[in-house]
Model the fold of this input.
Amino acid sequence: MGVPRFWREIRYRYQLIGTKCSNCDSTFFPPRLICPNCRGAGKVEEAKLSGGGEVVTYTVVRVPPEGFEKQAPYVVGIVKLDEGPSITSQIVDCEPEDVNIGSRVRAVFRKIDEEGPAGAIHYGYKFALEQ
Ligand code: ZN
Done:
């Protein structure tokens, strides 16, 4: 990811802010500026997300891409947020066998990678099993 895009997204990554359409109440994360359901008829505003969600499906990554070797095996899942949108995220702080379809998860703030421009460390949200 290049520097400009990273800085554009940083606010959203740090605060888990999506957008919500005033017309149909659809919530989007990552944020969208135009509601695809209403084709721009609705007013789209920022909406802070609760961070709660449910695992829809997941996979255990045992042969990781370069840069993630130390974390393997790890779990990547699709999380359906309580507000509706689904996002792909790493599920952290657990053993792969602890994750199930339907598990409740909550957003946690974690280091994403250290591969960024000038060795910058990127932080953002991942998900952990709800206790
Ligand atoms: Zn809409």
